[in-house]
Structure formats: structure tokens, C-alpha cells
Amino acid sequence: MGNKERRKLIKNLIAAEKISTQDELLERLKAAGVEATQATISRDLHALNVAKVSDGNGRSYYAQLEVAAPKIDQRLYDAIENTVESITMVQFMNVIKTTPNSNYATILAGLFDDSQMTEITGTLAGNDTLITISKSPEEAQVINQLVLDHMN
User: Fold this and answer.
1) Nearest CA-CA partner of 96 in 50, 121, 63, 133
2) Residues 6 or more apart in contact with residue 142 via CB below 8 angstroms
């Protein structure tokens, strides 16, 4: 199971019941057929903006905190503006060239991954080249236009 599916399951589990510890969460995941480590669960909780809250009776449990956040993080826009030199769309993929020999491609790939844009199925990055993979040419065009709109 990938991290998106696992995180969706975690979100559903903590919404359905008051889970107090990571061990308890690991047990629920295992019962659902998901093997994970404590470190993985810790990263998932952080990514989902989950924190312990109190029920007013001295018992604490995990809950997802609602945060009004922009659909796409400004850091992604800034990184595109400061590092992207060109973009070429090839069917359902975008090949993005960043500043040569800079390792910016891996940083930009991480920002795309963190954005959880539904138009991106996955990313591959090298030193200065990033590929975004979409399910269709139409979804790839959305990514292409986003990058073009924010390039310097």
C-alpha cells in the first residue's frame, strides 16, 4: 500500500475512533492488513497535520487539525520561478529542466509530491531534470501551464 492510501486509512481511523497512541494506531493498521513502522506512522501523522487533543476528561487522542491552506504551496511557485529554465510536454509527461548541476530538480520534485496535486501521478528527478507523470495529456497540460505561468 502506498503512502496516499495508508494516509487516507489513517485519516479515516482517527476520524472514526479515539486512538491514543501510535502503537494503537499501528494495531488498527495491522488489522486492516497494513504493515508499517512507528517512524512511518510518525511521518504520516505529521503530513496529515494530526496532533493529540484532549477530550476534556483528561484523555488525549489523535485528531486531524483543520488548517486553511492554499491549494498549492507558495514554495512551489517560488521554486518554479527561481529554478525552472524550460518545460517540454510529451504526451502525459512534462520534462522540466532546472538550473544546471544544481540538484534543484529533486527539491522541486519533493514540492510537487507534497502539493498532492491530483494531476500528478508521480515524479522522477535527477540532478537538473524532473519528469512529472500524469494519467492523461489533459492533466499533463494543467501541470505544463502551471509551470509556464510561474517560470521567470
Assistant:
1) 133
2) 119, 134
* CA distance linking residue 26 with residue 54, whole number of Å: 21
- Quick count: other Cβ atoms within 10 Å of Cβ 32? 13
- Which grid cell sits at 151? 517560470
| Helix boundaries (H) for the chain | 3-16, 22-31, 38-47, 74-83, 104-115, 137-150
- The one-digit pLDDT tens for each residue of the chain (152 residues) are 788 899 999 999 999 999 999 999 999 999 999 999 999 998 899 888 888 888 778 888 998 876 544 456 788 999 999 999 999 999 999 999 999 988 899 999 999 998 888 999 999 999 999 999 999 999 999 999 999 999 98
